[in-house]
Design brief:
It is a single chain. The chain is α+β, with helices and mostly antiparallel strands and about 1500 residues long. The longest helix is centred in the first third of the chain and has 51 residues, at about 380-430. The protein starts with 7 loop residues before the first helix and ends with a strand.
Length: about 1500
Amino acid sequence: MAQCAQSAREFIQNSFGPMVAVLCSHDAEVIAQKNNLTFVEMARPFCRLTTEAHIRDPQGQVNSIRNMRIILNDMNSQPPSSAIVRKMLNDVVGSIHPNAEASKSIITAGNYNLQLSSSTPWFEAYREHFLQVTLPSEHEFIRHFIACMLVVSSNHADPIDQFSKLNQQQHQLQHSSGINNPKWLCPNIFKYYILLHDNTEGEEEKAEAVYQSMKSTYGSHACHLLRINSRSLQAAEVASIGNEYTANMPDPWSQFMTNNSVDTGADQVEMDISPNVDSGGFPDKVTEADPEHMNDPTQPGEPFPGDDDSPNGPMPDTNPSHPLSQPNEVVSHPLAVGHETNESQTIITEDNMDATDGNNKDIVLNKLVGVHGACLTLSDHDRLRIFIHEFVVRGLLPYIEKMIRTLSEQLASRKGISRSFISATKNWFGGKRNSDKANKTQVDMGGKYLRESPELQMRRLGDLAFLVQMYELAYTSFHTAKRDFNNDHAYMHCAGALEMAATSAFMVGSFNKVYPSHYMDSAVSMYAHTCKKPSFATRAILLSTETLKARGMYGEAAMEFIRMTGEDSDLRSALFLEQGAHCFINMKTPMARKYAFHMILAGHRYSKAGQRKHALRCYCQALQVYKGKGWILSEDHINFTIGRQSFNLKQLENASAAFKHLLTYDSRQPAVQQAAFLREYLFVFQQQMTIAAQEGKPIEPNLPQLPLPIINKVATKVLLANAEQPTLPDNKIAATSVSFDQLYDSAENDKWFELEEMVVKVANKSALSTLRPSQKLLHSRTNNSQRPVAVIREPITVELVLTNPLKVPLMLCDLSLLWRFTPLDYEKVNNETPEKPPTVISNENICMNIANEMIRSQIIPEFELKANEIKAVQLSLTPENTGELSIMGIVYSLSAPLQSTSTVPPSTNMEITDSPSLKHSKKTGSSTVSVRGRQDVDVQGPRLNGTLMEKRIVTYGPDRRLDPIIAPPMPLLEACFVDFPYSLLCGEIGQTILEVSNKGDYSLHKLYIASKQPQCFAFRSPNNTDIQSGPLYRTIPLGDREDVDEHVVNVQNLSCVVEVPLPNGLLKPGCSASIPMWIRGPEKAGIHDVDILFYYESTEENFKLRHRVLRHSAVLNTTHSLCLKATATRGHIPEHNQRNQSLVVSLQGENMNQVHDRNITEFSLEQVTCVSKTWALEHIATKDKQEFKISGGESVICCLKAQHCKQICTSDSNQVVFTDGVLGKEKIVSYESPCSDFFFRSKFKLKEIEPPPQEFSRTSNNTKSMSVKQSLEGALEVDLTLLVLWKAFVVDETGVSHKYVGQHHVTMTMLDQQISTIPTAQRMVEQKAVRFLKDIDVNKSDEPSSTVMIQLIKCSLQHPDHKDHDFTKKRLCTVPVTLHLCNCTDKTLSIQVDTDTAPDNTPSMDTSSGYYVTPKPPNSSDFVWVRQVSQQLELSGNSSHQIHLLACFSKAGVFNLSNINVNVTRKSLGLEGEPVEQKKLLPSVITVSQTTNN
């Protein structure tokens, strides 16, 4: 938020001060020149009063004057020409630029945070110099000389006479009719006589005598003796050599001399000393007057033709000689910059100084060139201040006070007469009509007033009052004068009066009155439009805007600045537009967009004015508002202009950065414009590198950064393997491993890590303390906190996603990865010298041949990105040494086609005259511009959010995916499958061959396979390669024997990890092995993913990589085959030995394929094998050897009988018994591979599915109850698995028949529980109603389930199934019935048998058998039980008992005798509660027939 260094009041006070002319004699100037200064320059820093002065107004009241500034100018100085003025103002603005270290303020405007400069010194410098070079005009007196200083040296032969000559010279210059410059306030100005005394060379007595004579002649108030040069030239020289002067003495002239050097324009702008003076003058160069210009006076008040910035009237290009000057007596200034001392250039003095002395002084002065005030001490500085104070307080202010009083009296006496006379004259001669006409035409009809006219006297009074800070009197005078000027249609005078009236009103400082801003508006309009004086309009704007800003009216100030912008002056328009922009941002509600818009306009006008640095600065300031706010086209324009201006200013780095912004996002520019942007950037970048190379200063220590294409760094992937899969025959498929195309799934990734952890634990006989999972594919979702490990001489592939944001294609040539490598020998790491730092090698700064010895890089000759294309590129590296590798980015040559110049829009404001690309395009019409560079791929890690500190601040962790460690050689496993069966029937067994090969440098061993689906595959010995030539199962002929063969087989120890048999236990480099393999389809139809992890180790020890893995994901598609359901129930009750009990196994097979399916599938059950530790399957055979064939949609049921094995295996033994039930013509050896292998793998599946053992959930402390529960539940357990072998006959759509074999496993664990190979849908459990009362918790965890409690007693009835009776002879028929009870537990049970029951007639479902049972009807005369109706007995464990009952029938019929209830008391089990009713008897029917006698 730019603010001026001065306040508005300070600016106005500094702009207008009493103008004092200075006329020096030659000897006085010589004394002053010892300090490398003229007299005016020497006195100028002390021309401000440091104390308060006082003056009386016409009413006698004392007014204080503070900070009054006196403006000293040489009387003989001539105003500069228009060309010099233009150059001077341009140089002033161009020489001042914002300091990079200057303070900047941050302003918040809505959503914008703008960093603005705290000041605009170039505008203040322009404003100051503009007011300095403004020529005095006839319509005002504020810049007229009010006094004149006459300066003579005490060394002069006759100082009094010299004062008289100077006085005459001034009088003749003032009252000469042909001279318009300088202008004087009044005919009788105040003259002040100064006797300049050199303390080191002058005579003190002579000076005092002359001074006393002056006081007696001119008065003590108009004389002053000024003593200077208290230090000699020799002392100043010695001090300058020792730097004592610059270290101890202040230099108040530096700021004024800096401005003066700008004003001079390097020999074009005149200094305060005129080049044309009398014989006592002292010009800066030798000139001769032109006789033609002697009588060519200037005409101030008229604008320069074609000049806009010049505040002066028209002046000829050559400075006219002064009419009173003697041009033949001019000498060269000995201290002028660039002065060349030679024999012809000597100092001519009136004292006829010796030539030798003059040369010596010249030598001393030349040594002091650039040092100001070298002969002045601090006392001299104080004397200069006292001199100015005495001049102002004792001489000038009393003179002005007297003049103000005189003017006030004259105006008071003449006001009435003049006003009445003028008013009557106007009314008599029709002044009203003329006034109306003048107002309509707005033509300046006045301006020809006499100097003593009341109107000008009033204006003179106002100017004098304003100069001495009597602002109330000044406002009254200006206000009165402006009415008179307006009535006389003297609009130039009226505008001046309005301007100063408004300024005086502001300087009064009273806020009771409203600031008359309309006065200033009228003044600006009159200056600019009516009088055609843009310079005075500009001055009015400068004053008006400062007053408006001081009152906080920034909006009005901005409008005033914008008002004076036009095509007549680019520099002024640029400055005013910039200041208007700052006014918008300084408003109470900052207007950021208006600020930015006017800054762009200012930058454009700066550019037209040749101020490129300021134009660049304005555009950069405006970019803060437009950047990132959606103003795409505006941002493009700004960046493009910044690039152009920076290029023209030789700021190639900034130009390159600006053009880069045009290429880094989706632009809305057309393709032609984007192509132009790209060519501009490439050319500038090429120029930047060329110039840097010529100067021996590279842009960067490495290759430069390029903006295109855009790299999606987050999507960067690293594959620690070769991305290209090997080419194999159609019947072979390689292990999938990992590739760039795989989608990341965190659950699946965790599954692979779990498999690796399992196989590492098996291979190393224990779990490793720190296991680092193997990751071959690294991307943004993997854990990249540690450096990955790669293997020497194995490729590392990096995939980068490149985006072309432009609508034109891009061509990347010689594209490769950029890397940095540190060679390290890990095998001899202990022998390395720790003091010796490792050598870092990069392919960026070394020869490619040397780089390839370390790392072989893939180079893509050409990679094209079409318009707006997003494309992935894969680049690989192959390390040839061990060490640490860092992939930094990519290196390439960026090029774009250069179209014909006729289709490219013309480039403005950019000077590219030496562009070889453009020259070449004119000849050929098309070419390319190519730049070699790089792009870094610095991937940002994940944000840390673990600790409280990390949550408070934004912290990111490391991402090391591009920093692999190159480990020593390792074996490299490649695996492929031959004729892998992808489509199988459920339970079908297919055959394949696993081929493994070692492509590494070392031998591998400990080859394991880990999988979560080990039931899907099995291996054979690698020596049996004829797996596909023979039958799948080994069969033997079926003999005539009917006894059951029992085969005891050791249980296989199964896990998810399987060791793959290798020849001799290892695989050497370059060798391969073929391993037969069976694949079994899962029993559930659908698509199944089988994940297999290969694990292997090197025979040589490797500290960086202990093992390697290879992933493979196989897809199996299984279709429906058979659905097997089996139920085991107790057989008959043995009479003597409980061990002779049997099981009845019901097996149901259903063909799940339908008749209307595309493939016709028929199944044949070949064999049923029972696998158990306890049970053996009895021989099953049919008379006719019929096959069990099941067509589509059909099912078959067969009942099997199981007896206890002859070779009973204990529960803790690791053996099982295989017994076969052959249904076909041949017996399959089921206890050999692959039949037994898949059986044991199916048991592994059960272990994964079954819930945890019951003992983990038992928490009761009642060990007795726990033992009861275990005992009762063990009575119902059955450990029996049916292994069903089948064949399938399939006819496909083409009519070709196929024959497949397979097997299913049905494992039964509980009695009377149906097991199915296809899971059935579970019934929804009805939710209980919501209860708002808390139920009493009853601990039933120690009680067996109801399913167990109702099967404690096995009950059966024995009776004849038919009874003949003659009811005509005997009305009642009795039949004996025996009830067999068998205790199935080891506990003694208390049993209650009740035959007198009367349940309802509602049929009920028997949960065990699945049948609906109808209870017996109520007791009637048809059927009753006699003898013992109810009995209670104790039955010991595993024992049986018979109860003899008698049933009595009264008529013939069919009767169900199963209406007997058997209950077991809980007390006998140590439990509490009601007796438990046992499972209902199965229906037992007897037929009673009526017999007839023949």
